[in-house]
Design goal:
Blueprint lengths: L1 E2 L5 E2 L30 E5 L3 H12 L3 E5 L5 H9 L2 E4 L13 E4 L4 H10 L3 E4 L12 E5 L2 E5 L6 H14 L3 H19 L3 H11 L2 H10 L1 H10 L1 H8 L2
Parallel strand pairs: 3-4, 3-6, 4-5, 6-7
Antiparallel strand pairs: 1-2, 8-9
Length: about 240
């Protein structure tokens, strides 16, 4: 047994081999998932630019972060001063990853990377080294509440980046605005439309290909106007 940051005991996991054979010519089939890291203890070994990028993403997710590194970037140092994370100013030592939800390793030392991977009893990602990982981090597009993750299973991060850049042109900032509107409308619909079939039809219509096409071609403002003119939406507003 081990305990998380909130001290609730959970069973120790028996985790899959690092990389599942990657590096030995065997393909790995990964299970895609989104993790809720709020309040979870995460250890980042390394304090350079790569570690910084990982830390900033973890902060957005609400993780309880401990950074282990003799040196850290100016940005990480600012987050430390804000109290956003804990910094242990030394090299990694055995036992540093005890009672941790998951670990990210971003050092330029192959020896340290391998040591941390072997000693980590939970989820571990060694940046750009799939055979030392039991999970990998996808290339991500973030548009407010919309998150699109792209992965090639560790085979070609460069291709993941190219696909991400292509999708970024298809899903621009208008989608972030639209999702904020949908969040409010869905909340109102759950309270105001009691007929389940009618409610489902209304909400599916807001997420239809027609609406996505209109969002791309005419922009958020025009889509919002169209929704505001709809009978169902007017009815929702009237009953608030």
């Amino acid at each position: 047994m081990y305990k998380t940051a909130n001290m609730r005991p959970i069973p120790t996991l028996t985790l899959p081999p690092r990389g599942g054979g990657r590096g030995e010519g065997e393909a790995t089939s990964y299970y895609p998932a989104f993790l809720n890291l709020r309040g979870k203890r995460v250890v980042v070994v390394g304090g350079g630019r790569v570690a910084e990028r990982k830390i900033l993403a973890l902060l957005k997710a609400g993780a309880n972060i401990t950074v282990i590194s003799p040196e850290i970037t100016k940005r990480i140092a600012r987050e430390k001063l804000r109290g956003s994370l804990k910094h242990i100013p030394r090299q990694y030592r055995k036992g540093d990853v005890k009672n941790t939800f998951f670990v990210i390793v971003a050092t330029d030392s192959e020896e340290i990377n391998k040591k941390v991977s072997e000693e980590t009893p939970c989820l571990v990602n060694v940046v750009d080294t799939p055979f030392l990982c039991n999970f990998i981090v996808p290339s991500v597009i973030q548009r407010g509440l919309l998150t699109i993750a792209i992965s090639t299973g560790g085979v070609s991060p460069a291709l993941s980046k190219s696909v991400r850049q292509e999708l970024e042109k298809l899903y621009e900032s208008e989608f972030a605005k639209y999702l904020r509107l949908l969040e409010k409308i869905r909340r109102d619909a759950m309270e105001g439309i009691h007929d389940k079939k009618q409610r489902t039809k209304f909400l599916k219509g807001l997420a239809s290909q027609e609406m996505v096409k209109m969002l791309r071609q005419k922009g958020y403002a025009e889509v919002a106007k169209k929704i505001a003119r709809s009978k169902v939406h007017k009815s929702l507003i009237a009953h608030k």
